[in-house]
Amino acid sequence: MNHLSTDDGVVDNRQRWDKKSHFILVCVGYAVGLGNVWRFPYLCYLSGGGAFLIPYFLMLVVCGIPMLLLEFAIGQFVRYGPVGAFARICPIFKGVGVATVTMTFFLTTYYNVIIAWAIFYLFSSFQSELPWASCNHTWNTEDCFSHEDYDDLEEGELPPNSTVSASEEFFHHRVLGKTKGIEDMGGMRWELLGCLALAYIAVYFCIFKGVKSSGRVVYVTALFPYFLLVTLMVTGFTLPGAFEGIKFFFLPKWELLLDAQVWKAAAAQNFNSIGIAFGSMVAFASFNDFHNRSIVRDTLTICFTNSLTSILACSVIFSVLGYIAEIQNAPSIGEVVASGPGLVFMVYPAAFPTMVVPQLWAVLFFIMLICLGLDSQFAMVEVVITTITDTFPHWKYLYWDRKEILAAYVCIFTFLCGIPCVMEGGIYFFQLMDWYTCIVSVGFIAFFEVIAVGWFYDARRLSRNIQQMTGVRANYYFVVCWMFLAPLLLLAILIFSIVDYEVVEYGGYAYPVWAECFGWLIALVSIACIPVGAIHAVMTAKGSLRERLMSSLKTTLDDERHAAKFMADGGYSAVYDQSKF
């Protein structure tokens, strides 16, 4: 491990990645996660299929790629997690760093529930017949219609209308024991609680030794899913009705492009999937060597890998949706299953009974989901841990300055916070948390993040910082995006989403007013960190009110002095004319 003096005059004994490949794989593993096979298809399905792709790729080019580079550059140059990094870049915006970590913390409390569902399905796959393959179980209703029922139809006979797939009934009635609404949370699903505990045990052993153990784990968790997705895609394309599903995915409904919610969902998916505005990428980049010269290439690699994986996953899921529509005689792909966070658990399993040795493919698929989920979950827990160690170094006595003990504290606390999601009404609580944490909050935080860096720290200055680390300034396109395109697009989406506000729902269920108020409270907890942080920065500064305000708007970093500390370690030294770019 390198030990370098920082601008604060202390020794930089920050952990480093053992190999460059560990950083890439961890970032790819975090970006290419359940968001690709779970959230992306769910939002695409909710937004009318192909209509979602146009704003998604526009947001990727204008916001996704530039903002990921922004976060990598900040983390690698400042060498702190999100809270410490934004406090040094522009003290009045230090609340942005706190907001990203707060939002990440909320996400960790329920994200592992998806892994718990996958573990439940994994155990259920070790049976002579997959339990979601037929309608002969106690949890099935008269509306259930399975692949076996489809095979039993006479030639030319159509399936009855208003049927429900066996896989959807298994998820809602067997796995969740779903109640009628959030006002009826019901009892505890003890099997799911046990699966949630197993998920947290797995997360703990992935991260308890820090970034070194994380880097090694992702060799398996980041690469294995691609093999299975390709296999499922080939199988899905051979199913009857698959073409209709693919057509629904790629052909846009142009009228939906006028819906602000589609654009907000596209922005949220970019931020959620890549990890922008969650603090994770800032934290990961802070473990890089200061002279890592490939952050632009790393940014492009991660973004395009992430997007191509989303397209691959959606191709699989929409081919299976076309198949389900075929066997249910549904009038539209959009009416096949209830759109919601459980979409992946209702659609993918429907394809397994059509495959040779379905139990094997089911086991491999749910292992893949667990791998994808672990990548993202241990990344988010790592952000929380990094923030605690960076921001509260005097708390070391609480965990005896041992990373494994602090990791245990965080895992136990977030496990307890996730318990409401594994009750019988837990899916409603889960949907509420996810909507207001990852759809509502993230847009606000991303907007203030790009404003803090692009305008107050100065996008051109960040470009020079990149040159100090890599020897080459950032392309002028990135500077334009940081200063103009990304802030304007994000602001427009925020304004129109407020004007065209739509309440959260799950499968047609409308949440009561008190639940919406609770959701907004969750969103405001993270958003409020920004003004609170600004007030704290001004109040703790010295001088008159005007002097305090001006001081809070200025960075505490001396670029040349800060970069000079790392020159001996392979950095670039240069004298810059600040009047030029």
Strand order of the largest sheet: 1-2
**For the report, how would you describe the main beta sheet?**
2 strands, antiparallel
Q: Give the number of DSSP strands.
A: 6
- How many H/I helical runs? 23
Q: Quick gist of this model?
A:
By secondary structure, the protein is an all-alpha fold.
Give a written overview of the molecule.
With 581 residues, the protein is mostly helical. The radius of gyration is 24 Å and the shape is globular. It has helices at 20-31, 34-46, 53-78, 82-89, 94-124, 147-151, 166-175, 190-207, 211-221, 224-237, 242-250, 260-274, 280-285, 295-328, 343-351, 358-391, 403-417, 426-470, 476-499, 513-527, 529-540, 545-552, 559-564; strands spanning 4-5, 11-12, 144-145, 164-165, 505-506, 509-510. The strands form three sheets. Strands 1-2 form a two-stranded antiparallel sheet. Strands 3-4 form a two-stranded parallel ribbon. Helices cover 65% and strands 2% of the residues. Helix 3 packs parallel to helix 12, helix 4 (82-89) packs antiparallel against helix 5 (94-124) and helix 5 (94-124) packs antiparallel against helix 16.
